[in-house]
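W.,

You were right to be curious about this one. When I first looked at the sequence I had no strong expectations either way, so I just let the prediction run and decided to look at it fresh. Below is the sequence, 144 residues in total, followed by the output.
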Amino acid sequence: MILLMCCLIWSRMLLLPNSILCNLIKYFCNSFVDFHARFSNSPEKGVGLVYFTGPTMGYLIGFLTACYLASKIKIDDNFFVVLFKLIIATSTIYILGLIWLGTLIGWDKPIFALGAKPFLLAEIFKIMLLALLTKQIIKIKKFI
């Protein structure tokens, strides 16, 4: 997810705020009809809409919302505003993912423990790292 957020900030700085969102939508559509695009660790056969609607569908839809929200980061935003926007953007991934996971496997299962808890510490680290690097990325962009 940190790579996704870095790409989002770079696209925002290059004045292409929705290019990542459009590319993700195109990638998902290609995968729906089983073209060349493949999801990570996907089997050779059975990729398509059926595979997409598996346990990770909510997280994949969450990526779309995160792309849109992260594209709202402005160059003039300070560290805390960037941090807040990144937390909100990443939270949508987990919220939609947990809602879909609970719907798919049942709400009586430990949804949070299965779908979010193992990843939260790493997410906090990556969000903090990206929030710290945002100003440096902006300086590099001004240099280029």
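Here's what jumped out at me. The helical segments are 2-13, 19-32, 49-52, 57-70, 79-105, 111-115, 117-143. And, maybe more interesting for your project: The radius of gyration is 16 Å.

Coffee later to discuss?

I.
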